[in-house]
Amino acid sequence: MPSGPDGLVSDPHYTYEFAKARSLLLAHPQRWRVIYHYDGDGIASASSALRAFARLGYPSQATALVGVERSHVSSLLDATPGPVLVVDTGSTVLDLFAAHRAPVVVLDHHRYPGAPTPPALPDHVAFVNPLDWGVDGMSEMCAATLTWLYTVFLDPVNWDNAPWGLSGAIADRQHVGGFRGLNALLVDEAVRRSLVLPRAGVALFGPTVGEALAGSIDPFVRGLSGRPEAVGPFLNDLGVDPARSPSKLTPEENRRLVAALKEKLTTAGVVPEAANVLDQERWFLPSLGLAAEEVSNLQNAAGRAGIPGVGVAYALGDPRAAERVRAAEREWRTGILRGLLRVENDGVNSMRFLRWFESPETTLAGTQAGLAMNYLLPPDHPVFVFSDGGLGPTKVSARGLLRQVDRGLDLAAVCRIAAAAVGGEGGGHRVASGASIPPGTRSAFLDAADTVLAEQLAATDPSEGP
User: Fold this and answer.
1) Domain with CATH 3.10.310.40 in the chain
2) What is the pLDDT of residue 428?
3) DSSP letters along 153-212, please?
4) Architecture category of domain 347-458 in CATH
């Protein structure tokens, strides 16, 4: 018999939250506004939601959020007379949704004040967060897998939203080391239904091995990524034709290539969990003819290019959107490489418990920070990247490693406290977070962040003496 979603988690809060959210949506067959975060996870979440609305025959409109400032969300709600579905954001502004005059369903995986006990909410607001039922929203469930699961609760036909669930989870890097927890259960079910096919292979995507390696950002290979002039000799020395398609390599060529690249990553000090991305299990999506990593890159790129709606339209089957997301992906990859090469060549700034750098590519800064943390920087302390928004606030992205979280790192708390100290706002996950701060407050923010990090990490920092 086909598996259903009801028995995946034993905690009763799981069934209660999904049942309320399902009933609320089905009781209001009218136009819904879908509010989503503009990154890859948010776009994938909105993709599943809009596909489900279309099947229900509900009209819908989607609105992306670049920031989650209270004033922005409040204005958007004021302009929305009807019901609202919020995905990949919203946990920190539940009071605004409680004041909305129409039903609101919030699907979010971010930590909120008081988690895992949500605040009392009126009957017209449903809040679904995996933290409430013992599932880690940082590593075991993202917004896209949460929304995919919600659409299955609406109608089992929506199991075929699997591509967007995987796409969002990969965008949030929850695939590193293999899917875990509830993510793994969902992927296993998708595999059982032949919606996803596990495949082995090297994590290089492009028309030729040479182009794929020169353009590789995950992994970013020091001395090769972004340097096509170095890639040809490297591959020729291995007996691998740079003009071959990655999918056409023989098992022996794959073995030599993976071994050589892993040696370069290990020599550069890359932690094993990041280096293993190179040859861990891949997931092929038959309905799209692409690997899930490629779909993730396409949607992520659309968001970072300022066209998140095109990323959603791609999921809905718009052929013109497919052309635009491919062009956006090429520009996105180039921009990320530009930032990573700056870090490789110029280094970063260091404080006692953090590192930081600047990025003019505002929408790419978080991705640059995460990949720099994984492939270019020592694994002891987190990194912060700053992007000035002209006359507007300065955007901050912070990234760490799970091994730092095991030592006590909580970047959500760091960003929240440090941003509040300078009149800004911040939050997110323990391993990846962000903030928006007033212009000219970077130094004070860094001082405050370093102080909080000292409290979190000093006891386990090997460089700190007694």
Assistant:
1) 347-458
2) 85
3) HH-GGGGGGHHHHHHHHHHTTTTTTS--HHHHHHHHHHHHTTSSEEE---S--SSSHHHH
4) Roll (3.10)
Chain centroid, CA 410 distance in Å: 17
DSSP H/E element including 272: helix 272-275
Provide the 10 A C-beta neighbour count for residue 14. 22
pLDDT at residue 241, as a whole number: 96
What pTM was computed for the model? 0.87
What does the alpha-carbon distance between residue 64 and residue 322 come to, in Å, rounded to a whole number? 19
CATH class given for the domain over 12-175: alpha beta
pLDDT at 2 over 50: no
Q: Sheet of 125-128: strands edge to edge? A: 60-65, 32-37, 84-87, 104-107, 125-128
| Tens digit of each residue's pLDDT (9 = 90 or more) over 422-456 | 999 998 889 999 999 999 999 999 999 999 999 99
Q: Tokens 């204005």 sit at which residue?
A: 75
| 3-class secondary structure, 235 | helix
The answer to whether 356 and 385 are in contact (CB under 8 A) is: yes
Average pLDDT, the chain: 94
Cα distance between residue 132 and residue 342, in whole Å: 41
Q: Please give the pLDDT value at position 289.
A: 94
- E strand residue ranges, 205-361: 282-285, 290-291, 349-350, 355-358
Single-letter amino acid, residue 330: R
**Region class of 98: left (phi > 0), else alpha (psi between -120 and 50), else beta:** alpha
Can you tell me whether residue 268 is helix, strand or coil?
coil
Phi then psi for residue 465, to 5 deg, are -80, 175
For 299-345, the pLDDT digits (tens) are 999 999 999 999 999 999 999 999 999 999 999 999 999 999 999 99
Q: Residue 453's CB: how many other CB atoms inside 10 A? A: 27
Burial of 20 (0-12, 13-18, 19+ CB in 10 A): middle
**Token pair in block for residue 329:** 């992906």
Q: Tell me, what's the pLDDT at 392?
A: 82
The tokens describing 51, both together, are 């596909």
Q: Burial of 181 by CB count in 10 Å (0-12 exposed, 13-18 middle, 19+ buried)?
A: middle
Q: How far is it, in rounded angstroms, from Cα 165 to Cα 187?
A: 9
- Look at the block and give the residue holding tokens 């706002």: 425
Polymer length in residues for the chain: 466
Q: Is the pLDDT of residue 361 over 70?
A: yes
Q: In whole angstroms, give the CA distance from residue 363 to residue 38.
A: 10
CA separation for the pair 42, 44 (Å, rounded)? 5
Q: In the chain, how many H helices and how many E strands?
A: 18, 14
pLDDT digit string, tens, across residues 258-274: 999 999 999 999 999 88
DSSP output for 1-23: ----STTS---HHHHHHHHHHHH
Q: Give the helix/strand (H/E) hosting 325.
A: helix 319-346
